[in-house]
């Protein structure tokens, strides 16, 4: 068997809103609204303009992130703009026709093409046709790791071999050694390639977090590995202590990030799920306060077709002070004692 760790060195939807349910007397106020997948203050004007058919604000936003080497923001914005273009393509088509060589438009085009191919039963064949778009995006800005993150996702979806994936990984980390998106792509590849080998996923995630700065999003990578383990019924058990250590790393990172802010919202929503599965209710309540009104589709769309409503029910349950673990229906997968497994889901949920 190939040693996986030898291959990987360590190193839109428009937001929806919903009214809160009645808060019991004496509970701390957290706002009367919850929003799903809310854009931050920089992305919001770009989406509003795109809704009017205008691309200039989106182009300017990606140009700023490129000039300032804000690769985490650039990655997130490219994903969200591609998601918007998938349902509202007019503004993007105009941008592409007007400025076909703009690094921003090339980046969004590559992400959009991968997104369109991914749900198809013919994904592997369709993704092969996308390769030239990813190459064009990478050549447009050699410093940018985001096209390489897209290439890593593309390699996983097209079932590329380990050697090719390793070459992409090395190119990605040369550009940004601690880029979170590239690390998540690698973690997903490990999960898909060695399904059930969660210890390999944890080894990779722990080593990456140890090497990363304290304020890097990579500090949350072990918690993402824990999420994959807790929602997957394959493989040997991972010790409870390792799950707690992963959660503790993510809690420490969450505490360094702005409270009630859209930027760290997905990290905190995922961490909230992990903490609930570990029955760490007080820590879960603390994350709920930091989340504020910002629910995210992931991970709650894995539990329900109504992720916002699901988040609200979970929030109400936690704030009610009801004893005992959260009901199984609120966690999506049947909870077991920590260190066990829940129901099986696809490994891509890492």
Folded structure, characterized:
The radius of gyration is 20 Å and the shape is globular. It contains 19 helices and three strands. By secondary structure, it is mainly alpha-helical. Strands 1-2-3 form a three-stranded mixed beta sheet. 60% of the residues lie in helices and 3% in strands. The protein has helices at residues 4-7, 43-51, 56-67, 71-87, 90-98, 103-117, 123-128, 131-140, 146-157, 162-175, 180-193, 198-211, 221-230, 240-256, 265-277, 281-291, 297-300, 307-320, 328-331; strands at residues 17-19, 33-36, 294-295.
> Over all CA atoms, what is the radius of gyration?
20 Å
Whole-number count of domains: 2
Low-confidence stretches are 1-31, 334-350
Residue fraction in strands: under 5%
Distance between the termini: 22 Å
Order of helices and strands: HEEHHHHHHHHHHHHHHHEHHH
Question: Residue share in helices?
Answer: 55-70%
The main sheet comes to:
3 strands, mixed
How many distinct helices? Answer: 19
Shape type: globular
Mean pLDDT, to the nearest integer, reads: 87
Strand order of the largest sheet: 1-2-3
Number of strands: 3
Helix and strand composition category:
mainly alpha
